[in-house]
Amino acid sequence: MLANFLIGLREGLEASLVVGILVAFSLKVDRRDLISKIWAGVGAAVLVSLGTGATIFYVLAESSDTVQPIIVGALSVVATGLLTWMIFWMARTARNLKGTLEGSMQAGLARGGFTIAVVAFSAVVREGVETALFIWASMNSTGDGLPALGTAFVGIGVAAVLGWIIYRGLLRINLGVFFQWTSLILIIVAAGILAYGVHEFQEVGLVPAGAPVYDATAWLGKETVIGSLLYGLFSYRANPSLLELITWALYLVPTLSVFVATTRTAKNRRTTARSMEV
After folding, report:
1. Which of 32, 42, 232, 251 has its CA 20 to 30 A from that of 268?
2. Range 151-155 contact pairs with CB under 8 angstroms and sequence separation of 24 or more
3. C-alpha count within 13 angstroms, C-beta hemisphere, residue 65
4. Number of alpha carbons in the 13 Å side-chain half-sphere of residue 174
């Protein structure tokens, strides 16, 4: 459930910041009439996101016991890919996000209110659809069900409040540090989701299963305090097969290494740019 809260918080905060930037730009150019268009686009994006989540649950509920693990495994792989893309996309574009959105709004001013609504819709729907898929994948891999879904919505609610507070200038947080640390945690979450996808493929014989490499259920099973925390946050399995363990490691180690290197390079560039300005 902690993973779902974190996903809801991070994705919700990204969406809140996007909406705040669009609204602030409308006020800056003295076009308050655009705010209703922005909210119309945001509302449409929320409906599409909820529809995406509902469709996933419906399709899985109606699928047979043979087909369901294949769909679950495939969606887990897709969720891992999207989560990884989102993490690196934010690492590359966080500094220029405001300029990119304002440029889109400026271009849309000459085309009318509908274009502004499309800009808001496009900016938010990506976050919403990704969130629906990520939350489903995390819920399915941990088996927490509706409580985990409620936790995700709590995270989204907290993000909305934080976004409003930041927009009003009542709170200043280092968003770069926030996204950096949540990205590190989400990479570990994604590794667990991917390993779970492999587990589902093993259930129907699409990939070889084999005996568990180790069995720590007695100490780190879902019934234990530490095991439930690890399982709920990172989709940790106390008795993984060799292929699950290899998949987990082959994703986690390179992805973490590339992310740390990318973050460090970006930090060095900012430091160099500031020193040149001085």
Report:
1. 251
2. 151/1, 151/2, 151/4, 151/5, 151/8, 152/4, 152/5, 152/7, 152/8, 153/8, 154/5, 154/8, 155/4, 155/5, 155/6, 155/7, 155/8, 155/9, 155/10, 155/12
3. 1
4. 5
The amino acid occupying position 42 is V
Instruction: Determine which helix (DSSP H) or strand (DSSP E) holds 237, and give its type and residue range.
Output: none
Q: How confident is the model at residue 97 (pLDDT cuts 50, 70, 90)?
A: low
**Residues 172-195 as b or e (16 or more Cβ within 10 Å = b):** eeeeeeebbebbebbbbbbbbbbb
Q: Tens of pLDDT along 216-249? A: 877 877 677 776 667 666 667 788 889 999 999 9
CA–CA separation, 209 and 223 (whole Å): 24
The answer to whether residues 76 and 69 touch, using CB atoms and an 8 Å cutoff, is no
Instruction: For the chain, report the end-to-end CA distance as a whole number of angstroms.
Output: 47
Both tokens of residue 9?
């918080």
